[in-house]
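If you are new to this repository, start here. Below is one unmodified record pulled from the training split, so you can see the exact layout before writing a loader.
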Amino acid sequence: MARILLVAKNAFRAVMSQRALYVWAFAVVIMFLRSAPALFSQSNDAAVLTFIRANSVSGALQIWSILCMAAAIYLGSTSLPGELRTKTIITVLARPVHRWELLVGKWIGIASFCIVTLIIGVALGLLLASYLGVHPDLNALAMAATWTVGGILLFGGAAVAAGTCGSAPIAGALTMALVFLPVFVTAMTSYPKPWVHNTGVVLDYLLPPDFLGSNLYGGVVWAPFPVVNLPPGIPRRNLPPQERPTIDYGAEQKRTAESVAYGSAYFLLGCLFLVRRDIKFS
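And here is the target side for that same chain:
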């Protein structure tokens, strides 16, 4: 365990010293751009202003969470290939460190950095909400943050595992497939043709839960869309819902646990591949 924690500490330190400021600066700029409508809105309608502010804060939190998961994919897919390319892995494996311990340490270090980044984003989101005078639902925020942590562990673990192939682009592409394929699998399982349906059912067992279809942060800071002063002729069916989105906490906790389980399974496959792989440094 001490060796794993040492590798994790070194991985965390490496990210902090090389990429942390760039990642955080980029995320802060994106959050600022997303919240700009609320910061600079000149509307005199209190209902409109409240809706814009709530929508901006929830959108900024959602974007920050996506960036945290994207950082997990990028850092995970480049961690091991980078050491293979520069041959620094020779120094690590020359010590009494098993290959699986190296991967576990990197997964922990990268996930820790992304979780710290998430905490910073949540703190900034709360400060923004306080500045704009909107009130977040802390229970919904905790559930949404837990959902993001599940995504970090899933995609980070899968990216580190895929990185055992030695190619960062391939590792990143394989991990990104886990993000987009569940959407198509859902459509395949409802397709009438048997071979398409059966293929979708098999893939549904092999792929993690769908992350693209979720927006838990939409219920964190919410305000009803102002429909009173709408001009005539606008279809009401196209308007946003007039009630705060409900969160099934039990279902979301189950899905988060499934995400962590899938990430662990992919990671275990990566460990088995690296242990059996013949690494050549010449």
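Two things worth knowing about this chain: The chain has one domain: 2-223+247-276. Residues 87 and 282 are 10 Å apart (CA to CA).
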